[in-house]
Structures are given as C-alpha cells and as structure tokens.
C-alpha cells in the first residue's frame, strides 16, 4: 500500500520532469520528513538540489541515499551518484538543506569550485598565521571590533565576511522542531525577505489580528504589503477547480511563503506550548470576519492565504486554507474537509482515533466562526447541521494534536447545554457563559 512518503515522492518526480525544481524540492523534503530512511527520496532530493545549484546539500542527500539504500533499490530519475558530487568535492557558499517552505528561497546559487592554494604556499601561510596569532595576543584591541577580527585564515582566504548571529547572510544550524523537516535549516529573521521578492514590499499595511486563548484575548501584529497581493493576483485560481489537490495549490505558493512566515513566528512567540500555538492560530482565523458578500456573489475565484489576511475577510474555503497553512507550518498533520452536499469546507488536525471526526484520523475545526475544536455539530444558517461525510484532502503530514481531549470534553458539554433550550438553570447558564468566554464564542454566532 502506498504511504504518504510515496505520494510526496511521486509528486516530486512529476515536478522534476516538468523542471519545476523548487516544487520538486518541497515534495521530496516532505517525503523524507515522513520516512527519514527513504533512500530513493533522498536520492531524488539530491538530484533536485544539484539542479538548483545547492552542491553541498546535494552531497548530503546522496550520502544519505547511499546509507539507506536497500538491496535492489534505486532512484527513479537516474541510478548512480554523479562523481563530481562526492564528499571530497563538497563546495557550497551555504551549508544545510533549505526548509520545505520557510527557507526555500533564501538559498543562493553555487558559484563553482574554488581553486586551492598551491602547496608551495603552505609554509608561508603557516608562518603568517603564527605572526597574526602572536600579534593578536600582544595587541588585542588593534582591530577595534568586538569578537570579529579583520582576518579569516580559518576558512576561505580574504576578508572576514561574517556577521553577528541573526543578521542577514549568517548560517546557523538549528535542531528542527518536532513535526518539521529533519534536515538542517537556515536562520531567518522575520523581516528577512529573499532578494527576488524585495520589490514586492510596496504599499505597507499594519494589521492586527485578535484571538482568544483560554479566555484571555490577545492580538498578533503583522506588516503586510499590497505589492505581494498584486503579484499573487496574477495566479489563475479557476484552473484548480475540480482537481484533487486544488487547495494545496493555494496553500503552497512560493511568492507568499516568506511573507506568511512572520505570522507563524509571531504565533509561536505568544506561547511556548505547541498545542496552545494551535489554539491561538485557530482562534485567530475564526475571528477573521466572514465574507458574506463574496458568498452571495457565488464566484469561483477564491483568495490565497495572504490575500485573506490582507483583506481581513474570507469564506469557508479561504479561511480553511489559511488555517491549514499555519497549522502545517507549526508542524501538525493537517487535512481539509470538503463537504460537497453542504458546499462547505473545514479543517482537520491529526488527532487520536477517539477524538477524530467520523473516522477520518483528524479532529474537526470550523473556521467561519469561533467554535470549539472537535465540535462538528454546529448549526449553520445555510444548511443546518452537516450531514454528509467529507472528502478528506490531506495537506501535510505531521504530529498529532495531543491535548485535544480538553476541547473534546468542552465540546460535549457545549452540545449538552445547547440541547437544553433557550432557558437555562443558573448553574448551566454559568457553564455556558464560561465556555463562550473561553473560546471567544459570540452568542447566536454559531
């Protein structure tokens, strides 16, 4: 039976054949995230890195492919590691694979192999090194810098181009967070936008998105750009209607990624608890106003996640795609629930079987209005309750939302209280009011 890693590898192969190497890179990274010992996926990832000019990263992938190769296994694109990409020839201005979306466009091209200094100069270099070290010991303040000297004999020759950690261009190896790609990533400052997208930073707009976490209101602030939205508008959403992966084309759009990453980072800064980051993200998207005007128009054209945020409004599919993007970036397994009969879209987050919605492996999340995670029994103005089974459209594999039992129990209590009718006893009314405050539910809004 085909698993998730196989599916991502096949998608990557198709993109590779179309020479869509950046899309192929994302797919192969997802494959090795699901199955870190998948030799063929590592090999194809190496070929893709080579095509993009990431020479050092290509070597890393080929080495992993060789390590995990099983008897009779082979990559589907070619069958042997190119000799020029052996470990001895590892040369790259940056080390570490780019992350699947967050750092994909930060990498620079590979300029080619550097010439080695002639062996006859080895003694001269050693003598110079001794002199420099001695001078440094005698005159520690001669450079006038703090922690960064003028010379760099411990790497490539020439001026020291290092910068303090965190500044643009600095390579920092990180331990990946649970649910993220196991490969090494590059640091990214929230305001660090790849050069090819800098021209899109026009029409800056300051946005503030409210959320409620366990009854405590908060806001996430984000600087957005009209120029990015205009660039995204050039994409044609109509061609995606009817395709099984139609929503993934809205979730994974390279041009919007570097401008959405700061939102995910800002959510992480609100709390160190990964599951509470989920709750923050869910509430934030639920609080975005529903675009009734667009629904009334009946248009097939939907917004991309960045546009939904910038416009601060959206219909069910738009808000669901936005939330799916955020939860995926937070490292969770995510799917979209497409209810054909009700013409409705919701989000599923990976959960234990006892909390999954109708045996789907995912807990239900409504995005159009504040509701409790796992509550799929809400009343909708257009069609009442959801009756049909959803088509489950996986977005990204990832970790399980482990503490969903809290929401599950609250949702069961919420259903019980609502079943009692419009008039509640004092104790029940107090419980009902507490749940409204805890989740930011607006009475009559569900």
Question: Which helices and strands, and how do they pair?
Answer:
Elements: H1 4-17, H2 21-34, H3 39-52, H4 55-68, H5 122-138, E1 204-213, E2 216-225, H6 226-232, H7 248-251, H8 257-270, H9 274-287, H10 292-297, H11 305-311, H12 316-329, E3 334-339, E4 344-350, E5 362-365, E6 391-396, H13 405-418, H14 426-439
Helix pairs in contact: 1-2, 1-3, 2-3, 3-4, 8-9, 9-12, 11-12, 13-14
Q: Which series of helices and strands comes N to C? A: HHHHHEEHHHHHHHEEEEHH
Total domains: 2
The counted number of beta strands is 6
* Percent of residues in helices: 25-40%
Number of helices: 14
Strands of the widest sheet, in order across it, are: 5-4-3-6
Ends apart, CA distance between termini: 40 Å
**What assembly state would you assign to the polypeptide chains in this entry?**
single chain
Strand proportion: 5-15%
Specify Rg, calculated over alpha carbons: 26 Å
Average predicted confidence as pLDDT:
74
Task: Tell me, briefly, the overall form.
Answer: globular
Give the biggest sheet.
4 strands, antiparallel
Class from helix and strand fractions: alpha+beta
């Amino acid at each position: 039976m085909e698993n998730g890693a196989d599916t991502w590898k096949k998608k990557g192969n198709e993109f590779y054949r179309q020479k869509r190497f950046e899309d192929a890179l994302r797919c192969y990274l997802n494959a090795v995230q699901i199955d870190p010992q998948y030799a063929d996926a590592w090999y194809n990832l190496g070929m893709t890195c080579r095509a993009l000019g990431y020479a050092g990263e290509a070597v890393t992938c080929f080495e992993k492919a060789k390590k995990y190769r099983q008897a009779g296994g082979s990559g589907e694109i070619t069958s042997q590691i190119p000799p020029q990409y052996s470990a001895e020839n590892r040369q790259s201005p940056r080390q570490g694979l780019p992350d699947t979306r967050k750092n994909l466009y930060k990498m620079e091209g590979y300029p080619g192999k550097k010439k080695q200094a002639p062996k006859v100069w080895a003694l001269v270099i050693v003598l110079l090194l001794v002199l420099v070290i001695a001078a440094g010991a005698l005159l520690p303040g001669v450079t006038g810098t703090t922690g960064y000297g003028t010379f760099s004999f411990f790497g490539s020759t020439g001026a020291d181009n290092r910068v303090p950690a965190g500044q643009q261009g600095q390579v920092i190896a990180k331990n990946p967070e649970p649910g993220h790609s196991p490969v090494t990533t590059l640091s990214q400052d929230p305001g660090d936008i790849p050069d090819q997208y800098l021209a899109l930073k026009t029409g800056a707009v300051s946005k503030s998105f409210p959320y409620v976490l366990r009854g405590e209101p908060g806001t996430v602030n984000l600087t957005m750009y009209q120029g990015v939205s205009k660039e995204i508008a050039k994409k044609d959403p109509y061609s995606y209607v009817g395709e099984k992966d139609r929503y993934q084309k809205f979730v994974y759009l390279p041009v919007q990624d570097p401008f959405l990453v700061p939102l995910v980072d800002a959510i992480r800064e609100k709390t160190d608890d990964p599951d509470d980051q989920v709750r923050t993200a869910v509430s934030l998207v639920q609080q975005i106003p529903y675009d009734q005007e667009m629904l009334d128009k009946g248009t097939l054209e939907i917004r991309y996640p960045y546009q939904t945020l910038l416009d601060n409004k959206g219909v069910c599919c738009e808000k669901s795609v936005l939330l799916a993007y955020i939860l995926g970036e937070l490292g969770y397994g995510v799917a979209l629930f497409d209810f054909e009969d009700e013409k409705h879209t919701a989000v599923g987050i990976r959960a234990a079987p006892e909390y999954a919605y109708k045996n789907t492996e995912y807990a239900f999340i409504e995005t159009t209005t504040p509701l409790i995670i796992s509550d799929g029994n809400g009343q909708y103005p257009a069609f009442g309750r959801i009756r049909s089974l959803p088509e489950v459209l996986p977005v990204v594999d990832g970790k399980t939302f482990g503490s969903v039992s809290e929401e599950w129990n609250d949702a069961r209590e919420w259903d019980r209280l609502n079943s009692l009718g419009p008039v509640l006893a004092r104790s029940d009314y107090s419980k009902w009011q507490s749940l409204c405050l805890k989740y930011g539910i607006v009475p009559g809004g569900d």
